[in-house]
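Inverse folding, one chain.
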């Protein structure tokens, strides 16, 4: 697509991959809205990126409806959803908290579904649109302690495949990105021990570059799924 005609919503856009993607898209002429729960951080990210801030929590249905309606009203149209809002929770099965598992599902899976559902209503009415779901290599392979997070990312991959089958006839490209470990605030936010920064491991800029490149392809084609690994992480 021509990114100068892109009217984009990035969920979880106030930091990490979402913020970097907003920066790159704005620099290429796209109109970009970012949403997030923390209003202060969101407005700081908006100033940094040039994106339009909309406070809201994707796990809350009414918030998502309001966010999508605001994008359409502010931009006069809407044609790209980047479903990026997510966080991690890691625990061995014997210690897994049902409450925390359900909270994770509410954001990572249900929130992504609601954002997709509300967005696709407009996309179908225009017979055009793009959805980029940000998953993880955790959506391809499980690992010890990953039950909750891995479950959400496998679910997102499955939803992506369903949406792709439903909406290709409406000229809606549904794409999936699977980053491996990215050095953002994801680790600290999930409660895991933060490791020293490594110049050989992935940064948000590589994932943002992938998302932008996928969107830039001519609309007659699309990359269904892209997995991004560090070349030589030397961990």
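Residues assigned per position:
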């Amino acid at each position: 697509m021509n990114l100068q005609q892109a009217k984009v919503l990035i969920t979880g856009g106030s930091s990490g991959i979402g913020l970097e993607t907003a920066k790159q898209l704005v620099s290429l002429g796209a109109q970009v809205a970012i949403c997030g729960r923390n209003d202060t951080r969101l407005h700081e990210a908006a100033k940094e990126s040039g994106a339009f801030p909309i406070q809201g929590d994707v796990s809350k249905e009414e918030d998502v409806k309001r966010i999508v309606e605001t994008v359409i009203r502010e931009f006069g149209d809407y044609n790209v959803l980047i479903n990026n809002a997510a966080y991690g929770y890691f625990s061995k099965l014997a210690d897994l908290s049902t409450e925390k598992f359900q909270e994770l599902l509410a954001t990572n899976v249900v929130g992504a579904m609601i954002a997709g559902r509300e967005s696709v209503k407009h996309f179908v009415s225009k017979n055009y649109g793009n959805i980029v779901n940000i998953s993880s290599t955790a959506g391809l392979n499980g690992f010890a302690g990953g039950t909750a997070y891995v479950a959400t990312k496998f679910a997102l991959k499955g939803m992506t495949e369903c949406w792709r089958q439903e909406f290709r006839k409406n000229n809606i490209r549904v794409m999936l990105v699977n980053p491996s470990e990215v050095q953002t605030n994801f680790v600290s936010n999930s409660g895991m021990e933060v490791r020293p920064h490594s110049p050989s491991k992935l940064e948000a800029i590589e994932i943002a570059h992938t998302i932008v490149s996928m969107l830039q392809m001519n609309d007659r084609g699309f990359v269904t799924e892209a997995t991004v690994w560090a070349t030589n992480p030397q961990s």
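DSSP finds seven helices and seven strands in the chain. The two ends are 37 Å apart (CA to CA).
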